[in-house]
Predict the structure.
Amino acid sequence: MAGIKEYDTTAGNNSTINSIDISEGCAPSGINNAIRQILADSRSQWNDANWFEYGDGDGSFTIAYASGTSFTVNGIDVTSIYHAGRRVRAVGSSTGTIYGTISSSSFSTNTTVNVTWDSGSLSNESLTISLSILDSTNSGIPVLNQTVDINGNELILDADADSSITADTDDQIDIKAGGTDVASFKTANLLLNVGAYNAEATLTDGATISWDASTSPVAKVTLAGNRTLGAASNGQAGQFVSLLVIQDGTGSRTLTWNAAYEFASDTAPTLTTTASQGDLFVFRYNGTKWLEVGRNLNLALS
């Protein structure tokens, strides 16, 4: 046997340890040498405790190359051990040392294990295959779909420990970035210590202009002809949006507003006709219509 990986789970089958005879009637020196070898094997295993060579789980075994992304464990069904999601390490003289995640395994005479490697691939050679000590289906560490109680302690998010999330005040979550408190979430309100904004989006000009109020609440569009503005989609009741309508270099472009936009006295505005000038509109959504709350016309934009 060469290491713990080849120890048999049946005690009587362990008649040698790394070629040291420990069978019935062996020389006394064999017992001494065997104990020393066991201690060495145990230490070697602990020195690489994140990984272990499972083999077939019971004594000597054969692992063979199948392809650049797969290998076999000969003669036994060990799919429950080499299961999808488990991390694996492969070592070979040409392969080098590579790491990956098992994508699937199946059994028919041999167990075939398919792996998605982080980088590299297997070479057709003698391979040493090790599994992560943690089983992804019964892990010894918490996973994200479980509740993790950090009890008010700071959760550090970056390498230099100056960005974090803390809940050390009851019913309040504080967020820090670059060593600065940027936001506090409370049961009654949200406190922002830095400016908040929606990046301005550019809508696509066309015969009918589409506007997604969820992804583009602050938007602009340049008219290259007489257009219709479609009803803004994905609005939320109480939401405010703004739209900057810009004349192209020709000017005198008109805009027909969808009935979803409501103006004072049901009268839609007349756009500025001057080339390259803009008209700014602000709306509030009531769940049915976009109600104009403000406008600023004939703006010079540069």
In short: Residues 116 and 132 are 15 Å apart (CA to CA). The helical segments are 28-47. The chain has a mean pLDDT of 89.
